[in-house]
Amino acid sequence: MINSMTGFAAAKGESGDWSWGWDIRAVNARGLDVRLRLPDWIEGLEQSLRPMVQKSVARGNVSLSLRVQSVRSDGAVQINPDALERALTMIGDVEATAQGRGVSLTPATAADVLMVRGVLESSVGDATDTAPLSAALKAELPGLLDAFNAMRRAEGKVLHGVLSGQIDRIETLTDAAGKMALERLKQMQANLRENLARVLDNADGADADRVAQELALIAVKSDVTEEIDRLGAHVKAARDLLASKGAVGRKLDFLTQEFNREANTLCSKAQSSDLTAIGLDLKAVIDQMREQVQNVE
Q1: Per-residue pLDDT, 125
Q2: For domain 156-293, which CATH number applies: 1.10.760, 1.10.3470, 3.40.50, 1.20.140?
Q3: What is the pTM of this model?
Q4: Whole-angstrom Cα distance, residue 244 to residue 217?
């Protein structure tokens, strides 16, 4: 069963003097990109949590955010004067440089300044051993990841149904194209025999073998048997991928490109409005399938 790359989960916890809340969310990406927003005063936390997230997710742009606060009355967050002075100086330098170059910037707000790293600090965090807190957070993360992956599996189940339906539609259209191509082949053979007879009757000294070879070449260029066979093989490969375990999004994406290539060739060789219509229907379904595949891990 496939997993969706998109997902979300949130959790809250408390241990000792600390309470926390965190969330994890993911969106589509070509590879795996894990971004962590963690309190920098908890020593070694990122080194502990990042491998756990990377092991749980194979593909996607994943963001994990954690907010920790003290439940003790003497553990209020406070402003670091030195860090505040540095932040204000940097903001002033940026605004002065922008003004000198004729660039207009939106004035920084107090909230913007407080978001600068180091301006806000926890008095308790600076004076307390954070190892127990780090251990508690590390112990709770697997539960968050389980909830996150459960949502991705649920979305993956929906995606599986959508993709299965699209693959069934591609198979139906391919079968219809095969039957139509077979009927067209019989008609083409009859037309070629008539054309050959007509050419030989009206061309003195024409090389019958040469004319037959040219007409046969035209027939080969119009034959769509190989394209239909490959489309059938791609349908089987797509179903095998949907039934397999692990990350298959990239393989499915590549397969939709192969589907599209065969549909394009089918349209270019069709020489029949009905067969061309089937080819265009194939391209439409394949394009819809490719959009859905972008969500598969």
Answers
A1: 47
A2: 1.20.140
A3: 0.71
A4: 42
